[in-house]
Specification:
alpha/beta, six-stranded antiparallel β-sheet, six-stranded parallel β-sheet
């Protein structure tokens, strides 16, 4: 895997705990929607983040948590901020993973994300819209509080492009102002579909969530060979 230098063009807060990062590689890169990159903090410290942008765009977009409670992400963000301030590049390995979007399939899709796992399905959703793919697509995005739905307006606009697209945000700990779905995001899917047998299913989020989703969805008819998540290789 080749390590590529990337300029850090922008770091901006999307929420108090999530930041949008834009990187420009020093040379053309190739990746598929749904793949990830590894940010190289050192030769032995490489941290994976889903690529939120789509192939062909000049910049690579990442969504990275910055909460102190999540040192894995916050340390990576600190490295990016340091390099940005010094006007020095970061090093990254780009185009990793086997859970990329299968554009040649004709099956309807369910895209499910927890937290900043949204960046994975965001790339796939943009690819679907850009290619005018005309099959049913259901996007479920689970967060703890509704303030974490940083791209909800963008996804509502995405869903309005095609009558077959649906965007379903699910809030685990809703307050009195939340009018949408609540609870665990994978349970919302289980409640909405009698059988998951016919669907291609893409999943991103914490490993613990991915394991629960895999087991519960297979029990409801999902076919393992049509379920995609890089986490599945490790759990």
């Amino acid at each position: 895997m080749t390590t590529i230098s990337c300029n850090v063009d922008l770091i901006e807060a999307l929420t108090p705990t999530v930041n949008r990062v834009l990187l420009t590689p020093a040379q053309p890169v190739s990746f598929a929607s749904g793949q990830y990159l590894q940010l190289c903090l050192s030769d032995s410290d490489k941290r994976p983040f889903s690529i939120a942008s789509i192939p062909g765009q000049r910049q690579l977009e990442l969504h990275i948590g910055g909460a102190v409670a999540d040192p894995y992400a916050s340390q990576a963000l600190a490295h990016l901020m340091q390099q940005h301030q010094l006007q020095q590049p970061v090093q990254a390995e780009i185009g990793l993973g086997n859970a990329q979007f299968r554009a040649d399939s004709e099956r309807p899709l369910i895209l499910l994300a927890g937290g900043t796992g949204f960046s994975y399905i965001y790339s796939i959703a943009q690819t679907i819209a850009a290619a005018n793919i005309d099959r049913p697509v259901f996007i479920y995005w689970g967060v703890r509080e509704h303030s974490a739905l940083y791209h909800a307006d963008i996804m509502q606009a995405w869903a309005a492009q095609n009558s077959k697209y649906r965007f379903i945000p699910v809030v685990q700990n809703p307050d009195d102002n939340w009018q949408g779905r609540s609870g665990m995001v994978h349970e919302a899917v289980l409640n909405d579909f009698v059988s998951l047998e016919a669907y291609d299913i893409y999943v991103a989020g914490p490993f613990a969530m991915a394991g629960v989703v895999r087991s519960a969805f297979i029990e409801q008819g999902a076919q393992r060979e049509h379920m995609f998540a890089d986490a599945f290789a490790y759990i």
